[in-house]
Amino acid sequence: MTAPRRGRTRTREDVGVTRTLDRGLALLELLGDARQATLSQLARGVGISPTTASRLLETLKGRGLVDHDEETGLFSVGMKAFVIGSSAVRARRLDRVALPSMRALAEDTRLPVNLGVRDGQSAIYIEQFETGGTMRLLLRLGRQLPLHATAIGKVLVAWLWDDALAQAIGDGPLASFTVHTTTDRDIFLADLDAVRANGWATDDQEYEEGLFCVAAPIRDRSGEVVAGLSVSSLASRVGDEAIRELARHVTAAASEVSGKLGWQSANSGLDFELDQFID
């Protein structure tokens, strides 16, 4: 005699909900691979009608999982998808590799340490580490930060090719956040030249009044900049020598993480030219 099945019997409604959820997730996965796509491309890719795809995309958009550019008609993955997936991101190799170096950097400097990546035209903190020092960070994980007004944003775009850099920065005006923010595009590009020459970047109250940050790039095996590592301090506590010391600490930590990701730098040492950052 066959044992009775446990649990509730699936109804037609259950099957319909499961199919709808599966299609919605398939659309999200397709967008993750394509980065941007039209309604017809998404519908074809998932094998559903444009009407069904439009309805599902509208639901995902309402949840913040999908963005839609009204001018181009292109869909892309929304920021909510990143926030939901942040727990998975933390478990990935970058986080696991970076955390010991972040902890050591925080203990050496007694300052908060941030790990950030680029998402389109923004930088996003995916991990933070603080010690018992007096500095405390108020920026939450997953928050979008401007690339042109943060040290971590600068190192994330400084090594991009011209076309990729233009796309990351956009063609609109550079937003001003404080009186120290660089809004002139030519001056900003010159700042990136200095970042490449030095191997690190600073943010002297450009995003928040009273906050000073130093950041360095993290590279993968191919040499591509995949993340940025930064420390934050009160601007009133940072002088020329302190900047030099912070830069050495941050760059060493970022290089350590890069090495664990397979990157081998051609230079064993780093030459710091502070004149390009300090008046």
UniProtKB/TrEMBL annotation:
One of its GO terms (molecular function) is DNA-binding transcription factor activity. Residues 80-263 form the IclR-ED domain. PANTHER family: HELIX-TURN-HELIX TRANSCRIPTIONAL REGULATOR, ICLR FAMILY, HTH-TYPE TRANSCRIPTIONAL REPRESSOR ALLR. This is Transcriptional regulator, IclR family. The keyword Transcription regulation applies. GO terms for biological process: negative regulation of DNA-templated transcription. Keywords: DNA-binding, Transcription, Transcription regulation. It comes from uncultured Pleomorphomonas sp. Pfam families: HTH_IclR (PF09339), IclR_C (PF01614). InterPro entries: GAF-like_dom_sf, HTH_MetabolicPath_Reg, Tscrpt_reg_IclR_C, Tscrpt_reg_IclR_N, WH-like_DNA-bd_sf, WH_DNA-bd_sf. Residues 18-79 form the HTH iclR-type domain. It comes from the Bacteria.
